[in-house]
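can u do me a favor
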């Protein structure tokens, strides 16, 4: 199975197919879903939208440690609904090098607007570079679980996020990670939590994926003989970045720091909008990516 080598004790991925009760999916499609994506199958009575939505949402909540709730609302289910496909991802890990200090200070939403929030700081050795092509600083912080890191990309200009992300769209992940060097860095980032629900139909159509949302869709491989199309794609995300680490990780970080004592101290103060990428470094597989452009007061 494709997912067998990806999942571990910090990353959980769950897939499930919910066909309408009595609706026959293609045996070949079911075989691929089960063998390669470890998908379970459960028929639902879509004539009772509230119960169907509740069943799906309970599954998602369980698989995401109750961080994602109410993914599907009853009003998205109609008498034409034949299949709902659910993918749930949950990641939880501690930093390899813990943040030692947390304090209240200001985050600049724009050069003229700032809000008070909680900042975290530590000094240690991290992958770091200054990228003139992006006009930004790049910092890679590892998690205690080997093979996972978060990359922070901070524009040099406080209002430079939009321009930098336009450049990022044309930049490969390999290029972003290239030339990172173990460097002694004083890191300050806000403690933040991002929760967002996106209906992706309009976004995907603007990207050119149009036929699949119309009668032109060719989904014969899913259910032979029926003219199926995709009605919507809904994504709900939850990301919580905080200061927690482990004692063992702090000791490991100290051991690493002894290799580069001649490096001069660099400063990575993420107190204005920045981009972040959570990735599996073994395969350079991106798990989550986004940006922090604003923080609620306190």
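np, heres the sequence
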């Amino acid at each position: 199975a494709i997912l067998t080598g990806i999942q571990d004790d910090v990353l959980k991925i769950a897939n499930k197919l919910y066909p309408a009760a009595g609706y026959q999916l293609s045996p070949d499609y079911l075989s691929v879903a089960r063998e390669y994506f470890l998908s379970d199958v459960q028929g639902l009575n879509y004539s009772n939208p509230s119960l169907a939505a509740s069943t799906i949402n309970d599954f998602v909540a369980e698989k995401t440690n109750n961080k994602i709730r109410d993914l599907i609302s009853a009003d998205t289910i109609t008498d034409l609904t034949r299949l709902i496909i659910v993918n749930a991802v949950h990641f939880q890990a501690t930093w390899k090098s813990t943040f030692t200090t947390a304090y209240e200070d200001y985050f600049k939403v724009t050069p003229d607007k700032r809000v008070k929030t909680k900042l975290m700081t530590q000094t240690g050795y991290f992958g770091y570079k200054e990228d003139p092509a992006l006009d930004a600083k790049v910092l890679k912080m590892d998690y205690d679980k080997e093979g996972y890191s978060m990359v922070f990309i901070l524009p040099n200009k406080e209002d430079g996020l939009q321009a930098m992300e336009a450049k990022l769209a044309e930049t490969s992940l390999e290029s972003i990670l290239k030339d990172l060097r173990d460097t002694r860095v004083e890191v300050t980032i806000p403690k933040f939590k991002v929760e967002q629900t996106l209906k992706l139909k309009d976004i995907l159509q603007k990207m050119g994926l149009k036929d699949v949302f119309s009668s032109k869709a060719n989904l014969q491989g899913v259910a032979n003989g029926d003219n199926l199309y995709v009605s919507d794609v809904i994504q709900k995300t939850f990301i919580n970045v905080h200061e927690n680490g482990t004692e063992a990780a702090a000791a490991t970080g100290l051991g690493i720091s002894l290799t580069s004592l001649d490096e001069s101290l660099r400063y990575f103060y993420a107190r204005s909008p920045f981009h972040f990428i959570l990735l599996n470094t073994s395969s350079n597989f991106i798990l989550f990516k986004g940006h922090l452009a604003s923080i609620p007061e306190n």
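Residues 3-92+194-239 form a domain with the Antithrombin; Chain I, domain 2 fold (CATH 3.30.497.10). hope that helps!!
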